[in-house]
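seq:
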Amino acid sequence: MKKSLNLLLTACLLAFANLANAQDQSFFDEAGNISEELQTNLPTSGPKEGLEPIEMVNPRADDIYWQKVVYRIIDLREKMNFPLYYPEIPADNRTSFFALMFRLVQDGKIKVYDYAEEYEHFDDQHTVKFRDLMDKFALPYETKLDSITNDTIYVIDDSDVPNRDIIKYFCKEVWYFDRISSTFNCRIIGFCPVMQREGDTGLETLPLFWIPFETLRPFLSQTEVLITDKNNGARPSFDDLFMKRRFSSYIYKESNVQNRSLLEYNTTLEDVKKEQDMVKTRLINFETDLWEY
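struct:
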C-alpha cells in the first residue's frame, strides 16, 4: 500500500513538473523570433505528426439502395479556397495542396491515374509514372542515382513545382443513403488538379491526373493549413478542411445515362446555373423526403 502511494505521488510530481515546464516555455526565442517549437504547438494548433485521418464508416454495398455521383470544380481563385493554393512556396510549416500531392507522387508514396473525360479508372492499367507526367507537361527536373539502391532520384526545386499554374481542381464525390444507419452521407472519391498556362495556341487548360482521396488522407491529416487571417495559430489539418467541407465549389456534372456534363446539354450560362441549382435541390429534397414530420 505504501509503495503504491509513493508511486502515485511520484507520478503527480512529474505531471506538475511537466505542466510547469510547459507554462514556463517562452513564446519568443533568444533572437526575438517566435519559437519554432511553438509555431506548430499552439493551443489552437498542435503537432500533426502521427495523427490519423478522421474515421469514416464503410457501409455494406447491400445497405446502399440510393447513390448519386457528382462532379465539382474547386476554383482556387475564390477566397474561401485560398488555403488550398497558398503558400506558393512552402514556408511557415505550411505547403499548398498541390505541392503536397506533387511531392508524394515524386517520392513514390502514392499513385496517380490517367485523366480521361469519359470515366476514371483507379487501377494498375491506368497508373501514371512520375517521369512520364513530368515529360508530358514539360516540367523541369534533374535526375541522379541513389548511391546505395541505384534507384533514380528526381531533383526538383520548390520554385519549379507548378503550384502557381494550378488554378482549380475537379472533385468527384458520391452521395448515398445508408438504410441501416438511416444516414444521408457524402464521400469524396478523388481530385484532379487542373493546370492553366500559355501554349502555342493561347491559354491552355490541362487536367493532370486523378488521385484517390483515401490514399491522400493519411498525409493530409498530418499537414496543417492556415484557414483564417484573424488567427495565425488556428491551423487544422487538410483532412479536417475536406471532411468539414470548408471549401467552395460548383457542380459541372452529375452521373447520367449519356455521361454528359452540364455544358453539353445547356446552351447558355443561365441554363447551366439553373441546372446546377436543380442538382443541388434534388440532393436536398431526397434527404428531406426520407422523413415525415
